[in-house]
Design a protein that fits this description.
Blueprint lengths: L3 H15 L4 E6 L5 E3 L3 H8 L6 E5 L2 E5 L3 E6 L5 E6 L8 E7 L3 E6 L6 E6 L23 H8 L6 H6 L9 H11 L12 H20 L40 E5 L2 E5 L17 H7 L1
Length: 293
């Protein structure tokens, strides 16, 4: 599934390709891609004549900002957008086509058919699914080490599943959680509340660093990901943990191991990333509370 860097790359590419274009009409070839409104005909009618002002990202979601509507799109496993001339043959697995007044078409293709599209009156998309419960945006300036610690520092949940929870931090998936934990030297099974302030600060630096580097490289093309111009990402060449099972750790030489954690393949160095056990926290005494006040 495309993660934050891949979606950010798609958004940047789409802004170059379709911002300013006017939708003449829309063709829906697979009804279940359209989640809201419930009827595809209403979806098509609502978009007719709308101008794409810009495209933005929230977590792994793409937001098309139109005249008075917002189209929210999720690529899921293998969704992709491509700009074509109207006379070009339509590829198999193309499910939605946005026909523009200039004779070009933005086509949504999805082999797995898991992608979704929702239309909202502009500004109301934050109040309803799928955007209403999204967590911290890791590349936003407001995402600080202190905010991350406040959000996860007291939770007994294992750190990797916690970071994969989009209601906690958005945009992180299997690849970049493995990479961030490797850089921070934190075992993926360590409970979040077992981590020290120093470790959580390292984790914050690692999350921001790995995501920014991946964005700069155009994302990671592990399977089928390409941007809106059909170009692959290159960050997979810089991966230090994900997909390196049995290869030597770049820090210590120990072979990278792979386990299953919450149903996800998880890569780590057993030497550099020691698992931590949550220690019992002693209740503060009255005297210690006075000292702290």
């Amino acid at each position: 599934m495309p993660e934050l860097p891949e979606v950010e790359t798609v958004v940047r590419t789409l802004n170059k390709l379709v911002a300013g274009k006017i939708i003449h009409h829309v063709t829906v070839l697979l009804n279940r891609i359209v989640q809201l409104p419930a009827e595809p005909e209403q979806f098509c009618d609502a978009l007719r004549g709308q101008t794409i002002a810009s495209i933005e990202r929230r977590g792994k979601f793409i937001r098309f900002l139109l005249d008075d509507l917002t189209l929210v799109s999720h690529l899921r496993m293998e969704g992709r957008y491509g700009l074509h001339r109207s006379e070009e043959a339509v590829e198999k697995h193309t499910h939605v086509i946005f026909h523009f007044t200039d004779g070009t078409e933005l086509r949504y293709r999805d082999v797995r058919q898991f992608g979704t599209m929702h239309i909202f009156k502009a500004g109301t998309e934050w109040e309803l699914p799928p955007l209403h419960k999204l967590g911290l945006e890791p590349l936003d300036p407001t995402f600080t080490a202190a905010i991350l610690q406040a959000r996860i520092g007291s939770k007994p949940t294992k750190i990797k599943p916690l970071l994969l929870n989009q209601e906690v931090v958005v945009g992180l998936g299997n690849i970049y959680v493995d990479e961030a934990l490797f850089r921070a030297e934190i075992h993926p099974e360590s409970p979040a509340d077992s981590l020290s302030s120093k470790e959580l600060t390292r984790l914050h630096v690692s999350i921001v660093g790995v995501l920014q580097e991946a964005v700069d490289a155009g994302g990671s093309s592990i399977k089928s990901y390409v941007n809106g111009q059909g170009e692959m990402g290159m960050f997979q060449q810089q991966l230090l943990a994900y997909g390196r099972t049995g290869l030597p750790c770049t820090r210590c030489g120990e072979p990278i191991e792979k386990i299953r954690l919450s149903g996800r393949g998880t890569h780590f160095c057993p030497n550099c990333q020691k698992i931590k056990v949550r220690s019992e926290r002693k209740p503060k005494t009255v005297s210690s509370l006075v000292e702290l006040s």
